[in-house]
């Protein structure tokens, strides 16, 4: 008999469903505070459906995307659990919605800071390689010597890079479907 999708799962069921050893799940609980299975008498773990979905997203980022544990922790800190759950489920519409919501929470782009979208940018080769100033890292080589700086991206450039990441994830999903 199959369990309801809303039913709690034991560690052995989760490990089997996600093709992970049980000790890895226990280890991830120590590294990702967002994974909080309910513990009953004797320390027996019961994972809620949202815990399983989050673990699926963590597994995808670590094993399929090549992220480190620190990288996934940073993703969780910056984007929240729902972001990783959506990535783990392959729900790119939800990933995009979360990204747009996050972008709306940051300072809105001014008209002058909006990226230019003409036909050349949509089709064909770019005119020139983006320089350091494009990524918010100071002067480019053409403008003179590069000064040491904090290396932090501006909000606008961070949003552009995040959009590029989502585009790449969509491309990967499409390629995976073809294979």
Automatic annotation (TrEMBL):
InterPro entries: DNA-bd_dom_put_sf (IPR009061), MerR-type_HTH_dom (IPR000551), MerR_fam (IPR047057)
A single MF term (Gene Ontology): DNA binding
Keywords: DNA-binding
Domain of life: Bacteria
Pfam family, one: MerR_1
Region feature Disordered, mapped onto this chain: 133-153
Annotated HTH merR-type domain residues: 10-78
Record keyword ATP-binding present: no
The name this protein goes by in its record: MerR family transcriptional regulator
